[in-house]
Amino acid sequence: MTGARKLRLGVNIDHVATIRNARGGDHPDPVRAAEIVALAGGDGITAHLREDRRHIRDDDLARIQAATSLPLNLEMAATDEMVEIALRHRPHAACIVPERREERTTEGGLDAAGQHDRLTPIVARLADAGIRVSLFIAPEMRQIEAALRLGVPVVELQTGEYAHAEGERRATELARLAGMAALAAKNGIEPHAGHGLTFENVAPVAAIPQLAELNIGHYLIGEAIFTGLDAAIRRMRAAIDAACAVPA
Where residue 70 falls among pLDDT bands split at 50, 70, 90? Predict the structure, then answer.
């Protein structure tokens, strides 16, 4: 794999906290999951502090930061409360995502184009604090253009449409992802991707040369039930590395 591109793997540990919260108490502890991510070859920890605290809780953030040197990517809604929490904890990155109380998981991408005025001061406050701001957006030109206007250094392209498509539609969605990753990179924005990625569908996305990072969570936590989290992460790491080793 000499000369192969290194694509970072961020692991979202929210759903360890989901299981914990189903019964209350402290087990299973997402901090332990963060430690395993570090040992298994993950490059970062992603955690979504939702407004209703259904997954990660406030005190988890400081404990995760204390337990591992891996960078923390805080997924957060564009609210004053979440900005204050981010400023207090100073994660490596903050990824602004859409959030609705009734949704089971994040549905679609953030409408950065339609929320420019709302996002502008939030992006500025986070950036001024030294937090690397990312927007979780659909792979669409108007959203890339909005990210450029907002001055964010990173976008995370939502891969759900690709992950759930089949046949020709999947090929179309993959081409859309590749095109928008290239457009972002051409304009100086670092493109990441995530949502719905599995062992079976990750390779074509990982092979997109402009992508710098994939964020994967629910699938890995689900696989961990059967194989253990360490094994699940190592298998995903190997699939990503193999895709990056194939010449373009």
Answer: very high
> Contact 203/239 with Cβ under 8 angstroms?
yes
Q: CB–CB of 65/83 below 8 Å?
A: no
Known catalytic residues are: 48, 75, 195
Reported confidence tier of residue 103, pLDDT bands at 50, 70, 90? very low
Contact between residue 28 and residue 11 where contact means Cβ atoms under 8 Å apart: no
Cα Rg of the chain, angstroms: 17
Q: What is the Cα–Cα distance from 217 to 76, expressed in whole angstroms?
A: 15
HEC profile for 178-198?
HHHHHHHHHCCCEEEEECCCC
Structural domains of the chain sorted by starting position, each given as residue range(s) with its CATH number in brackets:
8-245 (3.20.20.70)
Where do the H-state alpha helices sit in the chain?
A: 14-23, 30-40, 58-67, 80-89, 116-128, 141-150, 160-164, 167-186, 202-206, 218-227, 229-245
